[in-house]
């Protein structure tokens, strides 16, 4: 098994500014950063030797300092609706999931930021087995590059990104922010900021930090309950960052950025999907610049939760809308290939691997 050495970082870890700084340290001109980014994210080469317009000396320096992220494709499942789910093996034997989704408005990639997750949401497969480690920025970047290579076969491109895969991106904040920097850079994959969404379970200090960053990147908050008691039962992270503090941080974000927040609400049959829950949620959100995305819960064999009946989903939506809260119901994709977060990795773990 190949193990990344302690003296080498991944080339995908470098932001454009970071690459310019490294080049300056090496006595190389800054304009080489544009050439290197072109090779990495436009031509998508996988070796430094392929960067033919760089001097042999610079290629040798790159080879000595950095290596490419190698994602071994363990499994690739393709759904009837066009969704593709990848299970990738990492250098240390761990495995992560990445999902490519096809919409009428383009191709979206859902990336993972951690191996496993420690947040502990009781309805999610990602948290099974706990948190193994954070991914580096480059390991997150590589997921998008691999998805783009898959699309290269048909002449398509990645048009949007959602950071909604396994893990909590705001507990891996530095790597997440560097990843975003690489994604939006005009010399790289050049994904529009408003076509990227970061989803968090409500890590309050990081919500403030994200607000202060003043990006145009969308923010989504996994909320799943209208009060502290119920949210703590569904999401143990609420004991660290109570519901009221999350909402206060959201108000700060909206005031600071002027941007709308999306609240994700997983409906669980008989648990958080009653009309009284909708009424209570509406009271919290009705004056806020926000949008609620209702998510019928995915069945996870290790959990006992059941899906909310279809008519109850529409009633929940009707109540929120009655109070002026913009609400939609998420369209399910990849249901036939276990495309929900953590499901494929959980099956892989059952086989005795990580």
UniProtKB/TrEMBL annotation:
Residues that coordinate or bind [4Fe-4S] cluster: 117, 121, 124
Any one GO MF annotation of this record: methyltransferase activity
This enzyme's EC code(s): 2.1.1.192
Catalysis: reaction(s): adenosine(37) in tRNA + 2 reduced [2Fe-2S]-[ferredoxin] + 2 S-adenosyl-L-methionine = 2-methyladenosine(37) in tRNA + 5'-deoxyadenosine + L-methionine + 2 oxidized [2Fe-2S]-[ferredoxin] + S-adenosyl-L-homocysteine; adenosine(2503) in 23S rRNA + 2 reduced [2Fe-2S]-[ferredoxin] + 2 S-adenosyl-L-methionine = 2-methyladenosine(2503) in 23S rRNA + 5'-deoxyadenosine + L-methionine + 2 oxidized [2Fe-2S]-[ferredoxin] + S-adenosyl-L-homocysteine
Needed cofactors: [4Fe-4S] cluster
CDD domains given in the database record: Radical_SAM
Annotated S-adenosyl-L-methionine binding sites: 167-168, 199, 222-224, 298
PROSITE patterns: RADICAL_SAM (PS51918)
Protein's name in the database: Probable dual-specificity RNA methyltransferase RlmN
Keyword Secreted: no
Miscellaneous: Reaction proceeds by a ping-pong mechanism involving intermediate methylation of a conserved cysteine residue.
Source organism, top-level taxon: Bacteria
Family: Belongs to the radical SAM superfamily. RlmN family.
PANTHER family: 23S RRNA METHYLTRANSFERASE (PTHR30544), RADICAL SAM CORE DOMAIN-CONTAINING PROTEIN (PTHR30544:SF5)
SUPFAM superfamilies: Radical SAM enzymes
Stretches assigned to the Radical SAM core domain: 103-336
Cofactor descriptive note: Binds 1 [4Fe-4S] cluster. The cluster is coordinated with 3 cysteines and an exchangeable S-adenosyl-L-methionine.
Compartments, record wording: Cytoplasm
One BP annotation, GO: methylation
Catalytic EC class: transferase
Active site: 97, 341
Role played: Specifically methylates position 2 of adenine 2503 in 23S rRNA and position 2 of adenine 37 in tRNAs.
Keyword terms, alphabetized: 4Fe-4S, Cytoplasm, Disulfide bond, Iron, Iron-sulfur, Metal-binding, Methyltransferase, rRNA processing, S-adenosyl-L-methionine, Transferase, tRNA processing
């Amino acid at each position: 098994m190949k193990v990344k050495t302690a003296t080498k970082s991944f080339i995908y870890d470098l932001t454009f500014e970071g690459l310019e700084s490294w080049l300056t340290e090496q006595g190389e001109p800054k304009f080489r950063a544009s050439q290197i980014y072109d090779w990495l994210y436009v031509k998508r080469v996988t070796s430094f030797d392929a960067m033919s317009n760089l001097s042999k000396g610079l290629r040798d320096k790159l080879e000595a300092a950095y290596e490419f992220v190698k994602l071994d494709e363990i499994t690739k499942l393709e759904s009837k609706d066009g969704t593709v789910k990848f299970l990738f093996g990492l250098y240390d034997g761990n495995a992560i999931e990445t999902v490519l989704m096809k919409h009428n408005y383009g191709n979206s990639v859902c990336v993972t930021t951690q191996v496993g997750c420690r947040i502990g949401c009781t309805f999610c497969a990602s948290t099974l087995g706990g948190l193994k480690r954070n991914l580096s920025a480059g390991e997150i970047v590589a997921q998008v590059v691999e998805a783009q290579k898959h699309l290269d076969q048909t002449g398509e491109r990645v048009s949007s990104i959602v950071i909604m895969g396994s893990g909590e991106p705001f507990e891996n904040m530095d790597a997440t922010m560097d990843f975003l920097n690489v994604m939006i850079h005009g010399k790289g994959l050049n994904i529009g900021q408003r076509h990227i969404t970061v989803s968090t379970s409500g890590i309050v200090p990081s919500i403030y930090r994200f607000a202060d960053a003043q990006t145009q990147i969308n923010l989504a908050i996994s909320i799943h309950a209208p009060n502290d008691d119920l949210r703590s039962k569904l999401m143990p992270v609420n004991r660290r960052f109570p519901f009221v503090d999350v909402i206060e941080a959201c108000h700060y974000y909206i005031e600071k950025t002027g941007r709308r927040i999306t609240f994700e609400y997983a409906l669980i049959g008989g648990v958080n999907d009653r009309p009284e829950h909708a009424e209570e949620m509406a009271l919290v959100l009705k004056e806020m610049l926000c949008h609620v995305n209702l998510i019928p819960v995915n069945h996870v064999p290790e959990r006992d939760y059941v899906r909310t009946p279809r008519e109850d989903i529409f009633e929940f939506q009707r109540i929120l809308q009655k109070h002026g809260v913009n609400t939609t119901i998420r369209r399910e994709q990849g249901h036939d290939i276990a495309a929900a977060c953590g499901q494929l990795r959980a099956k892989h773990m059952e086989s005795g691997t990580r």
